[in-house]
Amino acid sequence: MDVLGLYRKTGALLEGHFLLRSGLHSPLFLQSAALLQHPLYAEAVGEALGRLFEEEGVDFVVGPALGGVVLSFVVARALGARALFAEKTPSGEMTLRKGLTVNPGDRFLAVEDVVTTGESVRKAIRAAEERGGVLVGVGTIVDRSGGKVAFGVPFKALARLEVPQYPPEACPLCRAGLPLEEV
Ligand SMILES: O=P(O)(O)OC[C@H]1O[C@H](OP(=O)(O)OP(=O)(O)O)[C@H](O)[C@@H]1O
Ligand SMILES: O=C(O)c1cc(=O)[nH]c(=O)[nH]1
Ligand SMILES: [Mg+2]
């Protein structure tokens, strides 16, 4: 599946000077919501990502809100699993909503639209593990971590991107005076 082609076609591949969740700056931003707003594309992405984990016996899928909500749903649908999401808490961690049940030993797949440092999906993983889930894999549409991220289980991506990302103090785009965009 030509995932980056889909990002481009839906106007979800942005070029400029962006502030990332981690505080890093980058000339490229993938606005997954612009891609996933199209149910047919979302479904195709979910099927492609789900296929990579069909041997894992997944009971539920979990993704960090907001980006991970639609993705969790479409991947879970493809796998015949339940679709959960983790939401941000005021302290900056993530939690599963009270009414969402995890049975002890439930095997789960964590999904994320874009992985840069992996911190967001890690928080969702912790939230599901705290409820008794057992992580069996991590899937992402785009891995832009540069191979620096590992979860101790298979980590699979539909696309891997080598993109520059800079700490603010070493950002050449800042030095060039390009306004910083927060998407
Ligand atoms: O790997 P990381 O360094 O954590 O960065 C990637 C995360 O950043 C974005 O979420 P963000 O929290 O910005 O927004 P969202 O609420 O739209 O998902 C994206 O959806 C990933 O969850
Ligand atoms: O690192 C991020 O925050 C990030 C990068 C990206 O390309 N897209 C996104 O939604 N978040
Ligand atoms: Mg997110």
UniProtKB/TrEMBL annotation:
Pfam families: Pribosyltran. The keyword NAD does not apply. Pathway: Pyrimidine metabolism; UMP biosynthesis via de novo pathway; UMP from orotate: step 1/2. Its cofactor is Mg(2+). Keywords: Glycosyltransferase, Magnesium, Pyrimidine biosynthesis, Transferase. Residues 33-148 form the Phosphoribosyltransferase domain. 5-phospho-alpha-D-ribose 1-diphosphate binds at R21, K88, E112, D113, V114, V115, T116, T117, G118, E119, S120. GO terms for biological process: 'de novo' UMP biosynthetic process; pyrimidine nucleobase biosynthetic process. CDD domains: PRTases_typeI. It catalyses: orotidine 5'-phosphate + diphosphate = orotate + 5-phospho-alpha-D-ribose 1-diphosphate. Orotate binds at T116, R144. Its EC number is 2.4.2.10. Coiled coil: none annotated. It comes from the Bacteria. GO terms for molecular function: magnesium ion binding; orotate phosphoribosyltransferase activity. It is an enzyme of class 2 (transferase). InterPro entries: OPRT (IPR023031), Orotate_PRibTrfase_bac (IPR006273), PRTase-like (IPR029057), PRTase_dom (IPR000836). Catalyzes the transfer of a ribosyl phosphate group from 5-phosphoribose 1-diphosphate to orotate, leading to the formation of orotidine monophosphate (OMP). Homodimer. Belongs to the purine/pyrimidine phosphoribosyltransferase family. PyrE subfamily. NCBIfam families: pyrE_Therm. This is Orotate phosphoribosyltransferase. It comes from Thermus oshimai JL-2.
